[in-house]
Write a structure and sequence with these properties.
A hairpin with a 2-residue loop joins strand 1 and strand 2 (18-24). The longest helix is centred in the middle third of the chain and has 9 residues, at 27-35. This protein has a four-stranded antiparallel β-sheet. It has 80 residues and is mainly β. The protein has one helix at 27-35, and strands spanning 6-15, 18-24, 44-48, 59-63.
Length: 80
Amino acid sequence: MDTKIYCGNGRVVETKFGNMMKLSLTEEDVKRLQENLKDGWVNIDVKKRKEPSKGGTTHYLEVNTFQKEEKKEEPSSSPF
């Protein structure tokens, strides 16, 4: 089972132009992101909390560590 890697939080705020997601990352969160770079990229999932926190946080961020399994070629049983 993969360990979940949390890396920040966020909230939706209303503006005169519509809703906007505001994200907050600590220095530790940024380090966690850097540690999980693959080929210069890191994927993050923004997930909704079950209930908002006391400070109004409605979402949390999690590093997406999914990796496609490489397809292994099976040797052919045919001599041709």
